[in-house]
Amino acid sequence: MSAPRIVGLVGNPRPQSRTHSLARTLTREIARVLGSAWVTEVDLAPFGPRVLDPSDAAVTAAVDQIIGADVLVVASPTYKAAYSGLLKGFLDRFGTGSLAGAAAVPVLLGGAHNHRLAVDVHFTPLLLELGAAVPARGLFVLEAEVEDFGPFAAAWADAHAPALLAGSGAHAESLVTT
Ligand SMILES: Cc1cc2nc3c(=O)[nH]c(=O)nc-3n(C[C@H](O)[C@H](O)[C@H](O)COP(=O)(O)O)c2cc1C
Question: Domain 6-177's class?
């Protein structure tokens, strides 16, 4: 079986954001547990409004990179009790069901404790609509919790990364080839 392809997608309009560092930390921890060196990331910040331009070759390449993933960490700041408009604009380029074969983890970073459920209520349905499996509850990280995210992500990956692999096309492929 080839190594699972693990991709972090970051939907913060600001480059090198804390949201980005959460995605990077979690993808690395998932890769550690799954024993995969195939880890990459797509940060939407440099694209900005170009995510809305269907002829933009770099954005199209980013779409293809996401579609090829086995495990996706999709991270966004919480804006208005949901994910960012930048992320939605980018994901609107994907056909319904186009993420079939990928297992996704939605991650929201936010400042308001009472928006904790936004990740499960708003973010997970978007990923399901695109065809991804979402085997575990989404992660809502408060700004006050960012500093402690490293150990949390390590423990989360230990507990959930095997279920991510089982929900992905990489697992189906291994069932066919064994
Ligand atoms: C336009 C805007 C809207 C926001 N709306 C919310 C919100 O509804 N709920 C919440 O918890 N945080 C909200 N926040 C706070 C951001 O979620 C938080 O500052 C962000 O996740 C920090 O991530 P970053 O450091 O990666 O930019 C909002 C921030 C901005 C700029």
Answer: alpha beta
